[in-house]
Amino acid sequence: MRSTGRSNQPRRFLALLVLPLALAVSAPGFANPTTDSTVAPDRSSTGEQNGVGLMRIVVADKSGIDRLNQLGVDLAEYVKPVDNGIEVHAVLSPEESQALRDKGFDVQDAISDQSDYAQNMAERSAAIRAATAATGATDTLTVLRAEWFTSLDNQVFLNIEVKSSAGTDSTTVLTASWDSGPGTEIGSGGTATMSRFTDAGQYMYHRFSNPVPITAKPARATITSNKGGSATIDVTKWLGSPRKNPGKHPYVSDFVDHYMDPTEVTARFTGLAAEFPGLTQLIDLPYKTNGYRRQAQAQFGTAAASTVYVTSTTYGHEGGNDITMALLDPGTANAPLTVSVSGKAVTVRLATNGSGAITSTAAQVAAAVNANADAAELLTASTYRGNAGTGVVAAAPVTPLTDNLKAPASVSRDPFQMKVLRIGKHRDGSKVGVFLYCQEHAREWVTPLVCVESAERLLRNYAKDPNTRKIVDDLDIFILPVVNPDGAHYSMYDFNMQRRNMTNYCPASNADPGRRNAWGVDINRNFSVGSVFDGYVGASATSCTSDTFAGPSELSEPEARNEVWLVDTFPNIKLSMNTHSYGGYFMWPPGAYKAEGREVLPRVDQGTEAYFWTSSDYILSRVQEYRGTAIWPGRTGPVTDVLYSAAGNSADEHWYNRGIIGWDFEVGADIYDPATGRFNAVGFQPPFAEGHEEAMEFANGNIGILEVARAYATDKSQPRTALEVVKREPGATAFTFSTSEPANVYYTLDGSRPTYNSPKLALAGMREGVQNITVNSDTMVNWFSIDIAGNVEGNYKPDGEGKNFNKQRVSVQ
To answer: Which residues form the Peptidase M14 domain (predicted)?
Structure first.
């Protein structure tokens, strides 16, 4: 958890970030490249992770995040508005931190230290003073959201979001005041200045940087602008227990007691399938991963020009770890450069001059080793990171090659067989399918526990809990607990901040031992919708060492292809949940945009957006039930609205290609410290006591998703609608439609019969609710609605000939 003090707790977290990791021979400590194409990670030295830590970076807006992604910076899936921009967290070594500072980025301390807060405030104040002068026109305020909610120890918080018509002017300042309950005066509960939120240079709305802690639950709030605008709005409750008797039936939970590696998780799922054969099916996914394996390597030298490294042709566990190599000084004058092989021992006798001094350069040694047929069967030699290798090498004793993998023998080095546990009383495709999947990113250790806990609860409560029985009887549930098993093994045993899989696409010039923690593909950037290959931002297509490397092509990775195979093979899958960490988010598509003009993937329609919001209230209330954690309204919504652009992510893949309603959890919500008045971030791998609590509460959320899915599957109720006039003035009347449940409304204004080709009620704007429709003369409005489950209002047949659609005349003064 983040701290602003000097307690021992920050040190405990930093200790988690620097698990020991040794090299056979240490890599030279060269500075990272400082070109604008990449900031390539260099995260290894003898016995340490080179000071790698989880650091805070403050950028002005999301265009800054896009640039960090383009540079290949290893960003956490965490975005937090601060007073002078946006705070993101990144995994950085000291060299990487300095490289970013040299590019003008504001790289601050580790998340356990917030000593630079005052400086951030001063910078923001200076920016406001330097902004364009106000135009003087009175602005119009549109209140987007106003809610109070409780979290953890029943602390009450306030969240307000407001759009100003003058918001593009950076000097526009909004102030919110609220009462302390029904019948009390505005201002009696408190007053706070709101922050202006911009994205990619475009004004979005004003909001609080963090929810404001308050002492009383407000009923009304007034927002005023320094440009003269004012608006008063009712403050409503956000979240609340959706179940009247959550403890009425016997219910067992809490089936995880430690962080688990993918081998353990898969064994657990295999055991569940054997124990509950009548309710489960274990599915072997068709594409095995590359495996938890690496070629063995050794490196010789201390300076770039005189360094050479060798890589085994076979994987370490298949014989590469048995190879040795030595660089010998022959001890005589005018000796030639020679290479000899005895078994798996490669010996290089270096060339000398007339005085007996070694003259062999790194390039000459590499060429000689590669030219020797016997040596070439065992290994290849390279100069350091594309260096010309003109420096003279130094003699070195017999050095074993090693793959440097530290996992115990219980973790296989062979390609991994990913397995899905299918849970359901009727697993024949006749029931609505739900896909729950976890740990696309290796370092997110809590997430597989969420999937494990969810599966255990479903199976072990089936016999006793009526609610669980309904879920399992009425749904077809697919749970993939670890999408990225190779990377997860590597994260647990070798480099805890590993994000990607272990497939190395780097050429020899970028594949020395010092880069071994920087290889792999980001699985959640490898999908085929809104990908970097199509021009969307949030991934790298060129830097094999970028932590958002999308791979050589869309769906290049077996892990991503396995997901696609599953949803294609079982087309009854209609809903999904992708669990990540950390930060406490609940999100849905669209999840990517192009930088120029912030061109977002097509937004979901009004009815689907309403369904997402309505469902979120229920699902997040289930999360809150466990220990009171509330996911903030400001961290709930489409990915591009509340986080950043994530090109080629899996939720977009499933939604845009197959219409699967997909959500994303980011477990690990910030924890409020009443002593400091601050929210503390928990990180990827909190102490297990905290990780356990996160797994429990978000398993609650998964059960909530399944309850929502069951309601979707069994929904036979037709929506009801009403036409509502919202504004009349001479010559114009504005109206909209209200619906009894999330539904799309199709309408006509020309007296014709409405069909699916008719205009559809749209959203007024991002997070603004439905549009108002304006007519300038008396108009007959015809319409019908259809909900997310396909129920049409009044059994109307849009493709038929019936006239049982809704009709109402709208008059104009």
So the answer is: 377-709
